[in-house]
Amino acid sequence: MTEKMKQEKTLFMTRLMTPDMSNFSGKVHGGTILKLLDEAAFTCASRYCKTYVVTKSLDQVVFKKPIAVGDLMTFKCNINYVGKTSMEVGIRVEGERIKEKKDYHAISSYFTMVSVDDDGKPMEVPRLELDSEVEKKLFEAGKMRCAMRKEIQERNNKLHVSLENWINIWK
Hints:
Largest sheet: 5 strands, antiparallel
Order of helices and strands: EHEEEEHH
Helix content: 25-40%
Radius of gyration: 19 Å
Strand order of the largest sheet: 1-3-4-5-2
Number of domains: 1
Distance between the termini: 65 Å
Number of strands: 5
Mean pLDDT: 92
CATH architecture: Roll
Strand content: 25-35%
CATH class: Alpha Beta
């Protein structure tokens, strides 16, 4: 397989955190980071499957360290797991404080992205080729998280209160 034909399973995206991204405490706003995470997940997943993708879920966003204006943030994305029409993108965000010459792990998260056709209908994604032991472990962990998400969704559905019943609570 030529280098050009290899699956594009990873993506590195670096962004400078600018003053317009800050919140009232002078750190980068969490909502801004979530938007950048979603853009990185979209780019990694769509590049992998060569189709348009949409976000199905976002879970386990862990903000490990605050991000300062002026820091460089590198979004390290990897396709961890692939199902029939969806894929899990793991994202590790590493910060760099330029003046201090200090690197830090800022955020970890997992996105589930779904490949869609021109009508917005889910479509099959390419099977993930696992080339190393690390990739095999990431795949198994992603498979486990996929099963956990399904179980949580099923439990939530059983506990779901209809909107009509919820409105009646407040009367």
